[in-house]
Write a structure and sequence with these properties.
By secondary structure, the protein is of the alpha/beta class. The chain has 3 domains: 28-36 and 222-414, no CATH class; 44-147 and 208-216, abc type-2 transporter like fold (3-Layer(aba) Sandwich); 155-204, no CATH class. It is 67% helix and 9% strand. It has 16 helices and 5 strands. It has helices spanning 2-14, 16-36, 55-65, 78-86, 117-160, 162-175, 180-191, 224-245, 248-255, 257-261, 268-298, 305-329, 333-350, 362-370, 372-386, 390-414; strands spanning 44-50, 70-75, 92-100, 104-112, 210-216. Strands 2-1-3-4-5 form a 5-stranded mixed sheet, sandwiched between helices. It starts with a helix and ends in a 6-residue tail after the last helix.
């Protein structure tokens, strides 16, 4: 038994490439994890529309502008703001509808983005804190206005009977036969008197308030799992398609058929394209099975079926072409699997499933922005959660699809005859 263990360890240690990948894999993944969770979320793209320009609404807007985590865009039209959040161009939106007259009243509407619940919730939390602070100020102002109004009402009632009231008081002073300077001083006090109103609790109950309204950028009734299901569909397809393809060339090397291929009239790209055609047929079935399973087992929210299937199919083709590229640059099955695992888990970290760009280091954010699977996850979420159409997501699909060609060309160029 120990001899078998010794032999296996010796075999692994002899494979230098495998050892390098094995040792670097945890370091690279931990490094990526640290950089994607590098910051508290910041530069959150938030849109705001101030419906009524006045002192109170401007104060509220200034408070939002002072929040360092926001990358604020002020809209001049409410319709433009609502369209932007509905088309996933904003992470959150705020509509201020604050009236300022005798009292401060109105509403503050926070619109959450269903495709990025964690970032949107963070944004909502910040705006809600500003709301609590400002509403407390507005409430004090409204209460004071209410009190002043009641005082003025009581002053008015006093003014109607002023002559009678003062005459009665002055008569009483005269009866007292006080020295003239003292009597004159009291009469002057009566002339200058101000009634201090004595209020009970019910006098202050009708004070206008500002309402906080929380809405979402979709009319769909989403379940908790729906928020994550779209990204999971893409990730599952990527994982399976990548694993199917990542050892396809290395297996040919190990069995010796790879060497025999080079004595035939076929070119390297013939082998790559032939295998890709085979994987295309397999990926059609894979996309259908994953989507059917999600729909029947969990009743997940899906948009237009043909678009959802197109995204799933493109995800599978992209992963398969990447698998072929990995298989072309590795020379043993163990190496292929290690590289494939490293790339898959790197994508898992970088594509926005776990962490959003707002928390990433700038360098990592740039890498995330050029990965094809980032666009596929975004497109799947927009179709399923927001009911967007092809016109809104075609550019994302075009970017992702272009990587299929890039990976296949790369595989053809990097495929070497060298055997193990």
């Amino acid at each position: 038994m120990f001899k078998i263990a010794y032999y296996e360890l010796k075999k692994l240690l002899r494979d230098t490439s495998w050892m390098v990948i094995f040792l670097l894999q945890p370091i690279i993944l931990m490094f990526l994890l640290g950089l994607v969770a590098f910051y508290e979320p910041k530069d959150i793209h938030v849109g705001v529309f101030n419906k009524q320009e006045n002192e109170s609404s401007s104060e509220f807007l200034d408070e939002i502008k002072n929040e360092k985590i926001f990358n604020l865009e002020v809209f001049s039209k409410e319709g433009d703001l609502r369209e932007a959040i509905e088309k996933n161009k904003l992470k959150s939106a705020v509509i201020l509808d604050i009236e300022k007259g005798e009292y401060v009243s109105g509403s503050v509407e926070i619109i959450e983005n269903s495709t990025v619940p964690e970032i949107s919730a963070r944004s909502k939390e910040k705006v809600a804190k500003i709301f609590e602070k400002k509403v407390a100020d507005y409430a004090r102002e409204n209460v004071q206005s209410n009190i002043d109004s009641l005082i003025n009402e009581k002053k008015s009632s006093f003014e109607k009977d002023r002559e009678k009231s003062l005459s009665s008081l002055k008569d009483k002073i005269a009866v007292l036969s006080l020295p003239s300077p003292v009597a004159d001083q009291l009469k002057q006090t009566i002339d200058d008197v101000t009634i201090e109103a004595d209020f009970n609790s019910q006098d202050n109950t009708n004070v206008p308030k500002i309402e906080l309204i929380e809405t979402k950028n979709t009319s769909k009734n989403l379940k908790y799992f729906d928020i994550y299901a779209s990204a999971i569909i893409v990730i599952l397809i990527i994982m399976i398609a990548l694993k199917l393809a990542d050892t396809t060339i290395t297996e040919e090397r190990m069995t010796g058929t790879f060497e025999r291929f080079f004595v035939t009239p076929y070119k390297k790209y013939h082998m790559i394209l032939g295998k890709m055609i085979a994987f295309t047929a397999i990926d059609l079935v894979l996309a259908a099975i994953v989507l059917a399973s999600m729909a029947t087992l969990f009743d997940v929210s899906l948009g237009a079926y043909w678009l959802v299937f197109s995204i799933a199919f493109i995800s599978a083709l992209t992963a398969a072409s990447l698998g072929l590229l990995i298989s072309c640059v590795t020379y043993t099955i163990a190496e292929s699997i290690q590289v494939s695992n490293l790339i898959f888990f790197s994508f898992l970290i970088l594509t926005g499933l776990i962490f959003q760009p707002e928390s990433m280091h700038p360098a990592i954010k740039s890498i995330s922005a050029i990965l094809p699977f980032t666009y596929l996850i975004q497109a799947m979420r927009e179709i399923n959660l927001l009911n967007l159409g092809f016109g809104e997501i075609w550019s994302k699909l075009a970017i992702a699809s272009s990587f299929i060609l890039i990976f296949l060309v790369g595989a053809s160029l990097l495929l070497k005859r060298k055997a193990t």
